[in-house]
Amino acid sequence: MTRTPVIGRFAPSPTGDLHFGSLVAAVGSYLEAKSRGGAWLLRIEDIDPPREVAGSAERIIADLDRLDMRPDGPVLYQSQRLDAFELALEQLLAAGLAYPCACSRRDLPESGIYPGTCRNGIAAGKAARSVRFHVDDHHCVFEDAVQGMIKEHPATCSGDFVIRRADGLHAYQLAVVVDDAFQGVTQVVRGADLLDSTGRQICLQKALGYPTPDYMHLPVAATADDRKLSKREQSDPVRHHDPAYAVARALAFLGHKPPRVYTLQGLWDWALDNWSSDLIPRHRTIPTAGSMSAQPTKGTGLNKKDQL
Description:
The chain has eight helices and twelve strands. The radius of gyration is 20 Å and the shape is elongated. Helix 5 packs across helix 6 (198-208). It has helices at 20-34, 56-66, 82-94, 154-157, 172-182, 198-208, 243-253, 264-274, and strands at residues 7-10, 39-44, 76-77, 98-101, 130-133, 140-144, 148-152, 161-164, 187-191, 214-218, 220-222, 285-287. The strands form five sheets. Strands 1-2-3 form a three-stranded parallel beta sheet, covered by helices on one side. It has a three-stranded antiparallel beta sheet with strand order 4-5-8. A two-stranded antiparallel ribbon has the order 6-7. Strand 2 (39-44), helix 2 and strand 3 form a beta-alpha-beta unit. The chain starts with 6 loop residues before the first strand and ends in a 21-residue tail after the last strand.
């Protein structure tokens, strides 16, 4: 019996520099793939120009290289994949699984769940703004490697959701599904802030005839008041810190106990030998200071006061 090769990926949006929260996702996805003898890919999800920060894609790639995290293949830029997204959208429209919608956010109920206003046609006098996917009454059940059994009912969580926005841009939910299939991704390791998107993405995978990868949603690094660390909040960039120290911090956050003295190469060797998803905390968020200050001496490990 031929085993399917493991293919993982890290897929940041170029909305700012790599910070500790996104480093956790990068390290988790890298080790989950590489420890299984698989490939690790890098995808830049640059399909939302209004949110993008000039030069951040290049800095993210440079930071990963400095951390000795290099993809097994060329970097894929979603901005070069617009034709593929449009073909998938046309496939869904032709199959009656998507439809034009004239509604704006102001038209949504307070719950934010779309009630299907345009599902059977746009009202007279209105014009199409976006395209929505018809979720029907599907229930999505999947076993997440960290968060456990997840049961979602998109019809009552989001309702029919947008796959092409009113500004003409393809929505994240569609683009990520198309590109995971295109790259042959077999495992999606990412932050638990994206867990609620998974049911919608599984619906799209089934509608487009794509395989569903395995999922692992890692705990998200959060502030003391439970706000996710983010590039938009200018959380402490990884490039300001010693690479080995940054990787060690990410490993500790993910429940592992790296050696107190290490080089970057030695740390990766240890991590590949000792990586276990069973050690990852079963939480959606974990409070952290968010800063990687208190630098150790390069190549000698963490300061004693740094609690891993």
